[in-house]
Specification:
Two copies of one chain form a homodimer. The first copy, chain A, is of the alpha/beta class and 426 residues long. Chain A is built from 14 helices and 14 strands. In chain A, strands 6, 7, 8, 9, 10, 11, 12, 13 and 14 form a nine-stranded mixed beta sheet that branches. In chain A, helix 1 packs across helix 2 and helix 1 crosses helix 3. The first copy, chain A, starts with a strand and ends in a 14-residue tail after the last helix. The relative contact order of chain A is 0.18.
């Protein structure tokens, strides 16, 4: 077998536009952690995960323990768990509010989120050693391209301070702005399904935006995701207004019990990346038919094989599966595409933040054709590390002290009185 | 990628001792199907599955369709399903009573049972091409040996007709005979846990046998499996007598509803390879807590990746997993060992018929050490085809017209009035 000779864990900051959500607004920079697993033969495997300090610390503690081991993945989660417990005592911070967007915050999920980056890197390295794409190591692709959904955001035109990252998308704060954003997404990337991040404005305004999208793109799949902002009655009002228009509602309300109540009273499917985010949350949610689509995030479910496990559980219970996206770079987009290509019955386009991230650490960032990414048959993930870019983004991390995702703090730069809302907001 | 240049499907008959069960007695010969997948580079992958005529016909229809394709497995089940539907119209025989021992009999399961043999053969071939053991293709082993349980049977000393296969185990028809058999199993193979195939004698006699085993092997895990022969009240009486003695009861009664009723009223865990034998049977069984251990048979669950899928579902729902065994040769024992080595939380010793099968189609049959088999790190499954043996066992298939497992017919050779019992028998 192939042995691991070196492991590198590199924190970086990537620029992010002023995208709005329930918690606040994206910061100008957000942390990510980049993993390199290098074999004795010189093959390099790449992984990527969240960059908040606690994730980074676990990754930095675990990385050296991989050196000298073989390129296999089934033991990773258990091994990372040791680090999580050891690092946890001093450093875990359970107060990060922005992470409410990722559902519950548990040691299990931090373990999985860190482990996933190493799993992806090991699979990538193994693919390079063998000359095989990662999908073959996952049993082989069942499709040749993976469809993604345009991720529409209410947003400001720019961050508040001079010199912060900017772009030419302009503001989107009403139905017209959302439709204009969708038209550009469709034109430039070919997306044919659209997801609007909601929870920003009162529900009637967001319903109006989705209706405007429906008029502009009749027959196209549309989704609205307020990150659990609504009460059960509000969710049901929105559902009634969007039946026949939306493909599904994503996390209209918070908690499995509330989701189940909404699900019982609407024909619209409910999707989640908040109330079912780890295996231990599945039995209750499936028993109560609280969700009809689980949006897997391979980071916090624990990697690509864990995503296949989740797909098996969903398939067994007749629950749909698709993919959640958090601000990510090309390594994770490649990983998402590889695993998605292996999952039978993937009927919904996956989420991606991709068009919003203009920076990357891979030499050739992915391109969308008709809203889809072709499944690479090149060895490993099919991406190559841009070492100059990695160095520059790490240098930014050294220079700028952003160490966690905190959308509420970013919002307070403009609205000093802002506090992240309690649930339900509406 | 590696392309498949040739596929060979070979029916064989293997000898089998006169082992008793609810349906009757094992025939002197039982059919198996051996698969060879040969790549353009000359690598050979081996697979093995049931040999009853309908399985064989589906395998023979599917084999040629693999030629020219790549060595990947995720599409196999869907592709075999086409053959199953096409062959089904004329040839499927839903009346084979002996198959009651394998649970429900559906197209899905026949598809899975045939597909599994091709999946194993493809993984074996891929392993040979890459120089990697199958477990690495499944994500890597999490243990270095796999424990098996001694499979004790009530049995006759010999088959009724002269010239039929024989051995020196002698009869076992009472507690003393069962204990003697267990002692030889422990001495020769090192088994430390014991399963008795029940459903042969009235329950009190089988309870007496398990109690005798408990006295002979105090503290060792013991199991009793009457293949669903008992009513709910009988199951509960047996359970009451074996609490603190048996590790679990396997299929004491027939059907998920009855199993659930028994499970509610005993502290003994219930295991099954009859009421949960495919993914569509899981939700009802888990919702009613009908089974605490699922015994996977990688043949009828659909292969090694499907076994990992099943393990993921069980893990998610807190249900135990172990492995069922049907009369098998070294190819399937290698496959069972490879996949079992990758499954976290495998707490129960797996079943194997192995000591009862003295013939094999691999050059070096497996040996047990302390009741366990070391996980091979050699390429593929780590077994090599004995082509002479395969040819001889195929020649036997040509000469002897046994085309399906039929334990009731075998029993009628001695007891002409025998009919397979209706449920519950006791």
């Amino acid at each position: 077998m192939f042995r691991i000779a070196d492991v590198r864990v590199t924190p970086i900051l990537i620029s992010d536009p002023p995208l709005l959500n329930l918690q606040g607004v994206h910061q100008p920079y957000t942390p990510r952690t980049i993993i390199q697993v290098i074999t004795a033969n010189g093959a390099v495997g790449l992984g990527e995960t969240y960059g908040d300090t606690d994730y980074l610390r676990v990754a930095e503690a675990f990385g050296p323990r991989l050196v000298g081991t073989e390129l296999t993945v089934n033991r990773l989660t258990a091994e990372v768990a040791h680090c999580t417990r050891e690092v946890e005592v001093d450093h875990l911070d359970n107060t990060v509010q922005a992470e409410g967007l990722r559902g519950s915050r548990t040691l299990t999920k931090i373990t999985a989120s860190v482990g996933s980056a190493f799993e992806v890197a090991v699979l990538d390295a193994l693919g390079h050693e063998l000359g095989l794409p990662v999908h073959v190591l996952l049993g082989g692709k069942v499709r040749d391209s993976v469809s993604y959904s345009a991720y529409l955001f209410y947003r400001w035109a720019e961050h508040p301070d001079p010199g912060e990252p900017d772009d030419d998308w302009g503001a989107a704060l009403d139905p017209e702005g959302v439709v204009a954003q969708a038209r550009r997404m469709a034109r430039d990337y070919g997306f044919t399904s659209f997801k609007l991040k909601g929870g920003v404005f009162p529900p009637e305004q967001e319903v109006a935006a989705v209706r405007a999208l429906h008029e502009a793109f009749p027959g196209h799949p549309l989704r609205l995701d307020p990150n659990g902002a609504w009460s059960v009655p509000t969710s049901l009002e929105v559902a009634a207004q969007l039946e026949g228009i939306a493909e599904y509602l994503e996390d209209p309300t918070s908690g499995t019990e509330n989701m189940a109540e909404v699900a019982r009273k609407t024909s619209l499917p409910l999707a989640t990346n908040m109330c079912v985010t780890s295996f231990d949350e599945i039995p209750e949610a499936f028993a109560t038919d609280a969700v009809q689509v689980v949006l897997s995030d391979h980071h916090y479910w624990g990697g690509l094989r864990a995503t296949q496990d989740l797909a098996a559980v969903c398939r067994t219970y007749g629950v749909g599966i698709s993919m959640h996206s958090n601000t990510h770079l090309g390594i994770s987009l490649a990983a998402m595409t590889q695993v998605a290509s292996t999952i039978p019955g993937l009927r919904y386009a996956c989420d991606t933040h991709r068009p919003w991230q203009t920076e990357d650490v891979v030499v050739e960032p992915h391109t969308f054709s008709e809203g889809a990414i072709a499944v690479s048959d090149a060895p490993g993930l099919g991406v190559e590390l841009d070492t100059d870019s990695l160095a520059a983004l790490h240098q930014r991390w050294v220079e700028i002290p952003v160490r966690r995702r905190d959308d509420a703090a970013a919002m307070r730069r403009v609205h000093p009185e802002w506090v992240a809302p309690s649930f339900p907001r509406w």
